[in-house]
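TEACHING EXERCISE
Course module: macromolecular assemblies
Task: Read the component lines below, then compare them to the predicted structure of the full complex.
Student: A.B.
Group: 4
Components provided:
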Amino acid sequence: MDIRSKIGIRLKELRNEKGLSQEKFSFLCELDRTYIASIEQGKRNVSIVNIEKIAKAFDMSVYHFFNSDLFQ
Amino acid sequence: MDIRSKIGIRLKELRNEKGLSQEKFSFLCELDRTYIASIEQGKRNVSIVNIEKIAKAFDMSVYHFFNSDLFQ
DNA sequence: TGAAACAACGGACTATAAGTATAGTATCTC
DNA sequence: GAGATACTATACTTATAGTCCGTTGTTTCA
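Instructor-supplied answer key:
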């Protein structure tokens, strides 16, 4: 599977665990609402700075963000 | 420390472990020699697709690439 | 039955990463 | 001192990352 899709699945999974809408989450990580949506759809090649922003919004380290079978 | 620098340190660390020059490594991951150099210097905000290319060149998963105290 | 919340989608735009080229420094060997 | 190897500095083009505006379709619930 494409790494873009894996990132999308992981993001959606974490966001749903927290019970947040895309919009609410976009406020937390200070990224655009539509951008978050397209990441979740596996359409984006996200840069490491934004991955870090996303991880921080989930109160987790970059290591923990990638600590999933998806990235094994 | 900036995440860009952390990526650079991790890359250099892994490359040195393998005893590869920047140029030889750049052949392995099919990225430009000078591009690899600037990543190592923490100047680039690398995207996940290129991080995956780099990890693959080291025969490791993205998970393992980030499995370092640097990203904890 | 409508309005509020949510996600998918699109178009136009700006910012920046990707990728390349060239030159330069430092060290070593012959 | 020429040639080879390893790395750094800078600067540039072009692809695409990322923003901002809006619309549409669905679900849920008062």
